[in-house]
C-alpha cells in the first residue's frame, strides 16, 4: 500500500468564472500572475495538450515547469501533470465554481512525500494569492 499526502487550497476570486478561466488559460495573463518568463509560456489547453513555463521565484531563481492537460472541462476543471526537473511528475487539479459574481478556485494535489506536499502547498498558496489579486484587474 502506497501512502499519499494531499492538500487542497481554495481562494474566492472577485470575478466571474469566464474571467477566471481566461486568466488561467491565456499565456499573456498566465505569465503575469504565475510570475513566469513571458516568452516561456506555452498553453495548449485541451485534453491531451501540453503546457510549459519558467517560474521566477521571489528570490529570483528560475524553474522550468511543463506537463500535459489530462482533462479539460471549459470554465469548470483542469487536471494536469506537472513535471519539475529532478522530481517524479505529479498531477494537480484546478477547479472553479461560480458563486454569483465571485468564483471559488480550488487546487488539489496528491504527492508521494510529506516534504513534497508541504513544498507544493506553499507554492500553491503563493500562486493562488497572486492569481486572486490579478484576475479582478483584467
The number of distinct structural domains comes to 1
Distance between the termini: 46 Å
Second CATH tier, the architecture: 2-Layer Sandwich
Strand order of the largest sheet: 1-7-6-5-4-3-2
Question: What percentage of the residues does DSSP assign to strands (E)?
Answer: 35-45%
Explain what this protein looks like in three dimensions.
The protein has 138 residues and is an alpha+beta fold. The protein has one domain: 2-Layer Sandwich (Alpha-D-Glucose-1,6-Bisphosphate, Chain A, domain 4), CATH 3.30.530.20. 27% of the residues lie in helices and 41% in strands. Strands 1-7-6-5-4-3-2 form a seven-stranded antiparallel sheet, with helices on one face. A hairpin with a 7-residue loop joins β5 (77-82) and β6 (90-99). It is globular and about 40 Å long. The N and C termini lie far apart (46 Å).
Topology diagram in text:
Blueprint: E1 5-13, H1 17-25, H2 27-33, E2 42-43, E3 50-56, E4 62-73, E5 77-82, E6 90-99, E7 102-111, H3 114-134
Antiparallel strand pairs: 1-7, 2-3, 3-4, 4-5, 5-6, 6-7
Helix pairs in contact: 1-2
Quick tags:
about 140 residues, alpha+beta, Alpha-D-Glucose-1,6-Bisphosphate, Chain A, domain 4, seven-stranded antiparallel beta sheet, 3 helices, 7 strands
Amino acid at each position: 500500500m502506497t501512502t499519499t499526502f494531499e492538500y487542497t487550497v481554495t481562494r474566492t476570486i472577485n470575478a466571474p468564472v469566464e474571467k477566471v478561466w481566461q486568466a488561467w488559460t491565456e499565456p499573456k495573463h498566465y505569465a503575469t500572475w504565475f510570475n513566469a518568463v513571458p516568452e516561456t509560456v506555452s498553453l495548449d489547453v485541451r485534453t491531451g495538450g501540453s503546457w510549459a513555463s519558467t517560474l521566477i521565484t521571489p528570490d529570483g531563481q528560475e524553474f522550468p515547469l511543463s506537463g500535459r492537460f489530462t482533462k479539460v472541462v471549459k470554465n469548470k476543471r483542469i487536471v494536469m501533470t506537472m513535471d519539475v526537473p529532478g522530481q517524479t511528475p505529479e498531477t494537480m487539479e484546478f477547479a472553479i465554481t461560480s458563486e454569483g459574481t465571485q468564483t471559488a478556485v480550488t487546487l488539489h494535489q496528491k504527492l508521494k512525500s510529506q516534504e513534497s506536499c508541504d513544498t507544493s502547498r506553499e507554492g500553491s498558496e503563493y500562486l493562488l494569492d497572486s492569481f486572486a489579486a490579478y484576475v479582478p484587474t483584467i
